[in-house]
Amino acid sequence: MDDFERDLSRLLRDTQQHTPYEPEHRQRLHAGIRSRRRSRLLWKAGGSAVAVAGLSVGLALLPNMLTRAQPADHRPQPATSSTPSQDSEPTSDSPDPSTTPTRPESSAPATTTGGSTPPGGPSTTISPTPTATASESRTTSAPPTPPPSPTPTTAPPSPLEETQEPSASATE
Amino acid sequence: MEQVRADGFDEFVAARWSALLHVARLLTGGDRQRAEDLVQEALVKLWFAWPKVAEQAPEAYVRTVLVRMAARSAKRRWWGERPVEQLPDRADPGDVSSTVAERSRLEAALALLSAKQRAAVVLRYYEDLPEAQVAQALGCPVGTARSHASRGVARLRQILSDAVRPVG
Question: Which region, left, alpha or beta, applies to residue B96 given φ > 0 means left and ψ of -120 to 50 means alpha?
Answer without folding.
Answer: beta
